[in-house]
Amino acid sequence: MDEGASRTGTPVASSVESVFREEHGRLLASLVHRFGDLDLAEEVASEAVEAALVHWPVQGVPARPGAWLLTTARRKAVDRLRRDRAYAARLAVLQVEADRADPAPPADTGGDLPDERLRLFFTCAHPALAAEDRTALTLRCLAGLTTPEVARAFLVPPATMAQRIVRAKKKIRQARIPFRVPGTDELPERLPGVLQVVYSVFTEGYAASAGPRLQRLDLAEEAIRLTRILRRLLPDQREVAGLLALMLLTHARRAARTGPGGEMVLLEDQDRGRWDRTMIEEGRGLAVTALAGGPPGPYGVQAAIAAVHDEAADLATTDWPQVVALYDVLLALVPSPVVALNRAVAVAMRDGPAEGLALLDGLAGEPRLRGHHPYPAARADLLHRLGRLPEAAAAYREAIDLAGTEPERAHLLRRLAEAEATGDIGAADT
């Protein structure tokens, strides 16, 4: 859908946007597989949506709207290629090269090829692309996010993100990166990049970077589905099991994370009876698989942390010493300031807010935490608990300015009001 076009509030327009969001990855992957050109695929997909906005108000929304969009887009692509023979000839060469490079499905899949979106994931996560471009391109092409939405996820200006996406697509075209799932011998070295991309899609679904909703369940569930495909494709890869475990153990809390009006509900206030116990049990089993048989990987350790939370009856009975110990392991594997931030919060739960705040203040100079609203939000919470209310209010204001979604801002505004009200009462008493 054209990012510059205004979105109407009509029922048909809403249906088209809903279908496009749901079918975008499948539609784009099918078109790229057929025509071998990502730019062409995006253009005709957009034209198909425009056609839907014209025809659906008259003919009604079709029973299989995704199939309608795909058929329409394919016809438009064929029409365009017929008008441009040189373009068609170039695409034909690319398609032949891709077909020659595309291996047979690995024997352990039983001949069940993963769907075309997984092919596009491996293309977008190709090592020839810069690491920051891989996830950006995947969020744009597979998850259906607009370029401004991807830019907000990366905390960069939309123009910068547009340049990255154009650069990545140009690299795919110039390097003739094939649209295929790599052969069995290539998969292990390509896997970390793909897992990072899939997890980025899940993260955007679990905690949206912007918009009116805290969660985008469609993205989270799509990432889980694709990780299940990876799990079937690579059953011996423990980090695939770890990533799937992490997603399931986290996604199991989805129903309790928001209230009836979509408001944010913190972990300590969630109704744990609403957590999906079937999903938790599956995730726990996968976490055991991920941690057995060798040194742990980052996803396996994160899954173990999620399992500790899911096993606790409430926040007070959570095994915080174990959580901190697991974060110590994770920090050794992934020396990231974001991991250090999460560890500091766990230390605050184990040893008290003063200890956690000291660790957070030690991260103040980390560039990656600038613009990352959980950092000032965590400081605000600990300052609030310590009774340092003016400082807490200032940190809440900083977090409000950085928060991307409306539920997060609303929660922080409530906490700010509480801190200010308490501070006023204290001033009156003195």
Strand content: under 5%
Largest sheet: none
How far apart the termini lie comes to 59 Å
List low-confidence stretches.
1-9, 101-114, 425-430
Fraction of residues in helix: 55-70%
Rg from Cα: 24 Å
Query: What global shape is seen?
Result: globular
SS field, number of helical segments:
19
Number of strands: 0
The ordered H/E elements are: HHHHHHHHHHHHHHHHHHH
Structural class: mainly alpha
What is the averaged pLDDT score?
Answer: 84
Number of domains: 4
Domain RNA polymerase sigma-70 region: 22-85
Family: Belongs to the sigma-70 factor family. ECF subfamily.
Pfam families: DUF6596 (PF20239), Sigma70_r2 (PF04542), Sigma70_r4_2 (PF08281)
Organism: Nocardiopsis mangrovi
Describe the overall structure.
The protein has 430 residues and is mainly alpha-helical. It folds into four domains: 102 residues, no CATH class; 116 residues, no CATH class; 96 residues, no CATH class; 95 residues, Serine Threonine Protein Phosphatase 5, Tetratricopeptide repeat, CATH 1.25.40. It is 69% helix and 0% strand. The protein has 19 helices and no strands. α6 crosses α8 and α13 runs antiparallel to α14. The longest helix is centred in the first third of the chain and has 25 residues. The radius of gyration is 24 Å and the shape is globular. The N terminus and C terminus are likely disordered. It comes from Nocardiopsis mangrovi. Keywords: Sigma factor, Transcription, Transcription regulation. Belongs to the sigma-70 factor family. ECF subfamily.
